[in-house]
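lol ok so funny story. i was supposed to be doing the assay writeup but got distracted and ended up predicting the structure for this chain instead. priorities right. anyway since i did it might as well share w the group, maybe its usefull for someone
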Amino acid sequence: MKTVITGGGSGGHVYPALAIAEKFREKDPQGKIIYAGYPGGFEHGVVPGYGYEMVDIDTRWYERGSLKELIKFGWHVTNGIRQANKFLKDFRPDIIIGTGGFVCFPVIFAGHRLGIKCYVHEQNAFPGLSNRKLEKYVRKIFLGFKEGGEYFNDKDKLVVSGNPVRQEFFTLDKGSARQRLGLAEDDFVVLIFGGSLGAETIDRIGVEFTSVMNGKSKEVLIFGTGKWYYDKVCGELREKDIDIQENIRLTSYIDNMQDCLAACDVVISRAGALSMAEAMAQGKASILIPSPNVSANHQYFNAKAAADAGAAFMIEEKDVTPEKVLEMVKELKEDPEKAEEMGRLARTLAASDATDIIYNEIMKDAGLSSRQ
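and the output, tada:
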């Protein structure tokens, strides 16, 4: 079987795409999978490491309100459709699976015109523009959150699968993760991160937590500043005359997220679909601060879905202060039963079988024989 996987621009699109690709490779080791990405996109730093061949397809994000930007957008997308059309004619895949990001549009649009069976996965509770525009060109729409189905017209295409994450997020245990990180069983561990690049609001909270927790016995802070803000955070800590002690784990990028999530007691983060799915898989109580600077404010809807289920606290950025977040963490530390219940509810929202659902539904819909 020949498969094209496409999705790009951020880890939130790329890692679910890779989880789906891994399931197809597991089921059909002799099959051929090619990943279609955006030239120079985030995916180029990740996908080759998983052993997949890549092809570049031109595209561009859409900036409203500017005729010049609209013309640029139209030119790049048209060029991308032309490139995708040539690639797909040469490769002749059986199916195309997209996970969002602007690169999906030219690939799936061209694939649909060529009669290739196309599918998308939408990670967020509020769907992205690309996936909403692609609804008419795909056979099935897989949903990370059931709430996302409200924004699609053809309900017969919808399948609630949950968000695909690597299987290790479901299987790692706190004790072994703490051993690897050199943490004691009875430490109270807080994990704060704002994504691979970082987020100023999250880092402001992290600086305050560093100030409060620094040097405290039996308390540990793991603080991922993001690559853009590491130097700034270090400068702010120096200005506060904070001599960082061993209980503060400060880093620009957390490259062992699975262990950090497994080891922690509470997570403070943005509300990206992927980071939420990984925390839910580990059954962690979360404090979510959705970014208002994302398309259609989709992180708010992600966070609200978790908060409404009792699996997380949510604070909108306009209302957030470090003091409020400190109070929430204090509440969870002093009431471990509440934290445990939030974690249990989070685990019920996680989809350990997301990739199985996606694989089985596609194989059935496409009329292809399932490999074991």
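The longest strand covers residues 32-37. Residues 67-91 form the longest helix (25 residues).
back to the writeup now i swear
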